[in-house]
Amino acid sequence: MHKKFDHKTIEKKWQKRWRDEKVYEVANDHKGKKKRYILTEYPYPSGNLHIGHWYAFAVPDILVRAKRMQGEHVMYPVGFDSFGLPAENAAIKNKLDPKKWTYENIDRMTAQLESMGNSYDWSRAVRTSDPDYYRWTQWLFLQLFKNNLAYRGTSMVNWCPLCKTVLANEQVVGGKCERCGSEVEHREMPQWLLRITDYADRLIDDLDALNWPEPIKESQRNWIGRSEGINIDYTIVGSDEVLTCFTTTPVNFGASFIVIAPEHPLTAKLTTKENEETAKTYTEASAKKNEMERTGQKEKTGVFTGSYAINHVTGEHMPIWIADFVLKDVGTGAVQGCPGHDKRDFQFAKKYGISIRRVVVGPDNDTSDIVSEDQVVEKGTQGRMINSGFLDGVDFADAMEKTKDYFESKGWGKRVVRYKLRDWSVGRQRYWGCPIPIVYDPEGLPHAVPDEHLPWLLPEDVDFTPTGEPPLAKSEALKKRTVEIFGEGWTPEVETLDTFVDSSWYFLRYTDPKNTEVFATTEAQGAWMPIDAYFGGAEHTTMHLLYARFVQKVLCDMGLATVPEPFTVRVNRGLVLGPDGNKMSKSKGNVIDPDEQVSRLGADTVKIYLAFMGPYGEVTNYPWDMGGIAGTRRFLERVHGLGAHVHENEPRDVTSLLHRTVDKVTRDIEHFKFNTAISAMMIFINAAEKDGLSEESYKTFLKLLAPFAPHLAEELWETAGESFSIHQATWPLADKSLLTEETATIAVQINGKARGTIEVSADTEEESAMDIAKAHKHIAGYLDGKTITRVVYVPGKILNIIVR
RNA sequence: GCCCGGGUGGCGGAACUGGUAUACGCGUACGACUCAAAAUCGUAUGUCGCAAGGCAUGUGGGUUCGAUUCCCACCCCGGGCACCA
Q1: For A200 and B1, how far is CA from C1' in angstroms?
Q2: Is the overall model pTM greater than 0.80, yes or no?
Q3: How far apart are CA A691 and CA A135, in angstroms?
Q4: N or C: at which end does chain A have fewer Cβ atoms within 10 angstroms?
Q5: Which nucleotide is closest, CA of A85 to its C1'?
Q6: Distance, CA of A579 to CA of A415 (rounded, Å)
Q7: A664-703: per-residue pLDDT in tens?
Q8: Which helix (H) or strand (E) holds A173?
Q9: Are strands A360-361 and A176-177 parallel, antiparallel or unpaired?
Q10: Which residue lies nearest B21, CA-to-C1' measured?
């Protein structure tokens, strides 16, 4: 008889022992072991740990523990991304101190994280809102500032006139402020920006060498959006103004109109008297829309300015229109329309009666006039040029180079490379963030706060109720501090940094978390960087990951970082949904509380359930299944009782299965396929319960289980008389000679349809396989009276007999 | 709209490099144990059919001896789109 599986006692006992003996703390000296740095995106301290946190942190711990047992020196750090808007919103709403709110949440979540039993090195924990941390965020910003990579510019924002604050797109619902319901405006605001676009080429090119899933790399390439084209300068009829259009396609002979953004600097000048009224109305309406509303609408609209530009190659007068699907900050804010080559342009031309000319002939060789949308030959299809003067007959693919040469030689335009990527705006008119360490002199010029005054502390005498002024502008202490240090007339910067700046370097701090002299020495970074696996959410694919790569490159260029790319492997994970298949939310009442599950079924059960749910590293959403987790608990109960099946004579089949299980679990962990690893262990335990297993096999199985059910495995390891700790034991190796079974069951197909199976040894020749098949009563029935015309035999796999 | 991903039993999913589709788990049904229930154990379980057999991996086509897997077109669902993190 064995004791009941008492998960609560076991968890408490071993979590304490692991903590007391600092089992998972690692030094920067690897003592000859291979280093491995495994990282998960650190959490925002939102209040309570939810099941998504478990999925994010407990499942990668399987890999961490397995690698440690495989003899590697593994760092698995944890921390908190503790600056951010939720703290401020909670503060405004409930009149709390955002600092108090944040740190109480951190305490609660730390306790919850510890209940997971992850093999975290807590001694390296960082919190981005700690002055010891953000002094280095400030230092980083100043390095960018001193290297002309941080500058004052402008960017468009959502503005709520009543709340007097900038809103995230998320806070704008149907064009209205989420909080107060006022109509949201779109304003251009002065802004601190980082020159990430200077690094655009390297951010694209360096992707090639990274071992990331190709779709993630592709998303980054598209986000950066490099396109090579030409800026064409157009003369305006009856005006001295020059209008520049960016284009990547060689269709100037078919360009019959120009569209400019409503906010384009020339909009007013190009609009003639009789069109002023309509243009004004249109421009005002478009100011109320956000980018997605402007570019996403199905039917494009526009208004005519009354002005014309002269087409260089045709001499024709092209009407200039204002349309909100053109954005001021994209390209030059003005585009030429070619209705014969672009469906959007075709719809626009048709709607407003603008002329349409075919300039590209597609593979269908249709040279007729274009009268319907499906005749439009779009970019990316093959084709040759027509009605295009010097380009006639040239392959579409070659025509752009010729156009660039021609336009440059005539002085009509010049080659440019443009990016969709914009500079990173980092200033926030918020309180709970890292203060930007800049002060302005009496002339209003920005200066770096000298190093000796870092950390440039966030003042606490602030009323952060939104008034239209950044909260820090209301701090007397900050003003006083500035005047005292820099003199009369000097003023502080009152914006704080985007939290993405905090998170763009935290992984470097983990290598040297206590250093007071530098953010992290190159020795410490050299010991751990680059990160061998970075686990996180798919929503970070383009922003956080790109920002972190950018910062890493900047530091590397300055000789302050050791590698140009921070993350060698990236794994994007999916989402855990409520039992009803919807995203968990309080309003839907479908939230699964992890604490409740852990208390009822145990941390190991929750961990294995999440790992078993589906493959990790695929961005799929999995509904929580109460029955499913009960099944996982049953599995662990059976593991708990497995000791009772240990006896001296282990059948050879069980031995062989164990070695195949070792092999499969080892390989699956490597590929983040924890679900099939668990399934393999279930298959083993099914057989072991039935046929019995040896003491040695039992212990080997416990080692396989250890990364998945760390508490239970540790307990059973002790019960089996082994010494602490199973997590420091050596990972089992599969005996290759036991991996392959002697005979294989192969399928026999008749005309491609499975009709039966035969038992053959792996090295059976086709002829004898055929003999066995013919002797098989059922299969023989299909061959009776037929002529065999062909036989496809793949040893160990299949025998396909084609008959007539 | 643009970019990325995904559609396999009642459910989560499995299937190596193109080779027996549905492993493993859940659920369900029946049986054993029990005064009874729960728990546990056993058996069955894609679908239609008494069976032989047919039909099934979102839909339609193609390549192949053979397609969940490769190619083309389409439909549906999820994520991202720059001040939530």
Answers
A1: 25
A2: yes
A3: 63
A4: N
A5: B84
A6: 56
A7: 999 999 999 999 999 999 999 999 998 899 999 999 999 9
A8: strand A172-173
A9: unpaired
A10: A754
Mean pLDDT over A242-254 rounds to 89
By C1' distance from the Cα of A796, the closest nucleotide is B19
A146 pLDDT more than 70: yes
CB A90 within 8 A of CB A116: no
Rounded distance in angstroms from the CA atom of residue A697 to the C1' atom of nucleotide B65: 44
Distance A528 CA to B85 C1' (A): 26
List the structure tokens of A280.
């004004």
Q: Cα separation of A695 and A546, whole Å? A: 51
Residue whose C-alpha is closest to residue A306's, from A321, A294, A325, A316: A321
Closest nucleotide relative to residue A542's CA, C1' based = B80
Q: What's the rounded mean pLDDT across residues A575-601?
A: 86
C1' of B64 to CA of A754 (Å): 17
CA distance A367 to A387: 10
Encoded tokens for A36: 């491995």
Distance A428 CA to B71 C1' (A): 50
Question: With a cut of 0.85, is the ipTM above it?
Answer: yes
Q: Protein A153 CA to nucleic acid B59 C1', in Å? A: 51
Kindly report which amino acid residue has its CA closest to the C1' atom of nucleotide B13: A614
Listed as ranges, the nucleotides of chain B within 7 A of a protein C-beta are: 1, 3-6, 11-16, 19-21, 23-27, 40-41, 53-54, 65-67, 78-85
Question: How many Å does it take to go from CA A751 to C1' B70?
Answer: 21
Nucleotide closest to A628 measured between CA and C1'? B26
Measured CA to CA, the distance from residue A412 to residue A404 in angstroms comes to 10
Closest nucleotide to A298's CA, by C1' atom? B1
Q: Cα(A655)–Cα(A684) distance, rounded to whole angstroms?
A: 10
Using the structure block, give the residue that is written with the tokens 């009829």. Answer: A237
CA–CA separation, A341 and A379 (whole Å): 7
Considering all nucleic acid strands, name the nucleotide whose C1' atom is nearest to the C-alpha of residue A165.
B83
Compute φ and ψ for A394, nearest 5 degrees: -75, 140
Distance A352 CA to B3 C1' (A): 30
Grouping H, G, I as helix, E, B as strand and the rest as coil, residue A462 is: coil
pLDDT at A1: 34
Neighbours of A456 (CB within 10 A): 27
In this predicted structure, what is the pLDDT of residue A381?
Answer: 60
Task: Give nearest nucleotide to A792 (CA–C1').
Answer: B65
Which is more confidently placed, A173 or A353? A353
Q: Which residues contact A84 (CB under 8 A, 6 or more apart)?
A: A44, A432, A433, A499
Q: Give A197-232 pLDDT, tens digit per residue.
A: 999 999 999 998 888 888 889 889 988 988 888 999
Q: How far is the CA of A219 from the C1' of B5 (A)?
A: 11
For residue A297, report the phi and psi dihedrals to the nearest 5 degrees. -65, 140
> From the centroid of its chain, how far is CA A288?
30
Average pLDDT over residues A771-799: 84
Tell me the CA–C1' distance in angstroms for A691 and B15.
Answer: 27
Lowest mean pLDDT among A91-95, A148-152, A448-452: A91-95
Taking every pair of Cα atoms in chain A, the longest distance, rounded to a whole number of angstroms, is 108
Pairing outcome for strands A533-537 and A35-40 = parallel
pLDDT band at A380 (very low <50, low <70, confident <90, very high): low
- Name residue, tokens 């040029």: A385
For range A780-792, the mean pLDDT: 83
Nucleotide nearest to A223 (CA to C1'): B3
Query: Do A720 and A623 contact (CB within 8 A), yes or no?
Result: no
